[in-house]
Amino acid sequence: LTLSFFSRGKLGRYPPWPGKIVNPPKDLKKPRGKKCFFVKFFGTEDHAWIKVEQLKPYHPHKEEMIKINKGKRFQQAVDAVEEFLRKTKGKDQASSHNSTEEKNRRNSSEERGKQSVGEEKRKASLSEGKVKKGTGEGKKRVSSVSSERGSKSPLKRAQDQSPRKRGRPPKDEKDLTIPESSTVKRVMSGTVAGFKWPPSVSEPVKDSDPHFHHFLLSQTEKPAVCYQAITKKLKVCEEETGSTSIQAADSTAVNGNITPTDKKIGFLGLGLMGSGIVSNLLKMGHTVTVWNRTAEKCDLFIQEGARLGRTPAEVVSTCDITFACVSDPKAAKDLVLGPSGVLQGIRPGKCYVDMSTVDADTVTELAQVIVSRGGRFLEAPVSGNQQLSNDGMLVILAAGDRGLYEDCSSCFQAMGKTSFFLGEVGNAAKMMLIVNMVQGSFMATIAEGLTLAQVTGQSQQTLLDILNQGQLASIFLDQKCQNILQGNFKPDFYLKYIQKDLRLAIALGDSVNHPTPMAAAANEVYKRAKALDQSDNDMSAVYRAYIH
């Protein structure tokens, strides 16, 4: 049976897992390079592009894989495969039974038809005999006339006028059925390394093996899958721009399919974003050493299994890859260049990943000093908020050392739903500032609209309901409006940080002589909110700048 496959995963770091090939969503690009298939994994809602050489037929390798994988979730996946096969077999048997009955009915009908034709022939023969006997000399005359005209009996004439004899196809119709392809035989008998796509995947493929028939149809039929689930499985796809995205596996404990790297991970900075990231790294089985300027914040993670680092330098020196997530450019520089800082722990081969949202000049300076000591550097600012961080649903924008980016894959899977590699150092910082500039400006516009509704006697709740039914509807819009309507400004994304990002985005525009009037206007509103002591509230507290 080749309906289900085992995947060895990228570089053998992911455990074998049973799945079946399905048709990817229309808006999901196929990776460039080697031949691969889009696989849905049993026992989960995960999907991934898997290279051909990493696929094996299910039945020949089933026992071998079960011996290797003793986990409960793997056994559940195998059970799901077997249940699927039982249901498929039941449908096939029912289909075969119905087909047999239909064939019997058809044969019976044909037999009755033959009997009817025979009866008609017999009657026609008798009738012709009576005519011949009763006409006497007319018989010769009729025969003579018939012979001269070359005419035939009505039955004979009807048979001659028929385009072809019953049951015999013409030459051009002999090969209408599709023969079993040699490709099918090759896949059925061995690994999928030799698998080739049929000439046209849009045409249904006929095959004597019902299981393989379903397997091939799964490449052409629309699968019942959810796009959110698709974006939760590791896959690499290169776009025309040259950027690469790794869309990572579900980071929650429900999934449990992430194979953590065997490298020692360090993490510096346990703020709103860092805390959620570290929690998910630990949950997915990574070995993590933590440090925070306020040491008390480390206690909870020590209880969850993290190790404590006394200084940033100590963390870097004892770990293979160290991540950092701090508030602004000054904090990022102090962390690296300050006393007992990151730079003092850098040795050849040590890796540093800065996840802070800073400007391109700052991140370029940090990269230079890290690399000058023989270290490897990657910038990886994150888009999201505290809730998304806790849920492992961040979007990671990375740039710098491509090899280090790939080494971080299991970590990125644990902390986020998607990560993008954007090229050289500085690109991720610029992109992150643009993203947050759009978000901050949008938040200010939401607040402005709600206050205008209030002062003109309109219902703010009704305005939200209308917006939620239109093209602007989003989780972000609904959550921030609810914050304002309920007067709840507990920080999910600090107002002071979005104002910092707006300021840096405006400076980015100035550096290339590009106008940013909308961002500049929004920045002024946030500055007023900060003057009203809203810095440590959520960004939605910008609303208060309009009502005071």
Instruction: Determine the fraction of residues in helical runs and give it as a percent range.
Output: 40-55%
Estimate what percentage of residues fall within beta strands.
5-15%
Q: Major sheet, described briefly? A: 11 strands, mixed
What's the alpha carbon Rg, rounded to whole Å?
36 Å
* CATH-derived architecture of the domain at 265-425: 3-Layer(aba) Sandwich
CATH class of the domain at 265-425: Alpha Beta
Structural class: alpha/beta
Inertia-based shape: globular
CATH topology of the domain at 265-425: Rossmann fold
Oligomer type: single chain
CATH superfamily of the domain at 265-425: NAD(P)-binding Rossmann-like Domain
Sequence stretches where pLDDT stays below 50 over 5 or more residues = 1-14, 126-242, 246-256
Terminal CA distance reads: 70 Å
The number of helical runs is: 22
Description:
InterPro entries: 6-PGluconate_DH-like_C_sf, 6PGD_dom2, 6PGDH_NADP-bd, GLYR1_PWWP, HIBADH-like_NADP-bd, HIBADH-related_NP60_sf, NAD(P)-bd_dom_sf, PWWP_dom. It is found in: Chromosome; Nucleus. Residues 87-183 are annotated as: Disordered. It comes from Notiomystis cincta. The structure is a single chain. By secondary structure, this protein is α/β, with parallel strands linked by helices. Among the domains are: 6-90, SH3 type barrels; 265-425, 3-Layer(aba) Sandwich (Rossmann fold); 432-545, N-(1-d-carboxylethyl)-l-norvaline Dehydrogenase, domain 2, CATH 1.10.1040. The protein contains 22 helices and 16 strands. Strands 6, 7, 8, 9, 10, 11, 12, 13, 14, 15 and 16 form an 11-stranded mixed β-sheet that branches. β3 (36-41) and β4 form a beta hairpin. α20 (495-511) packs antiparallel against α21 (517-531). The chain is globular.
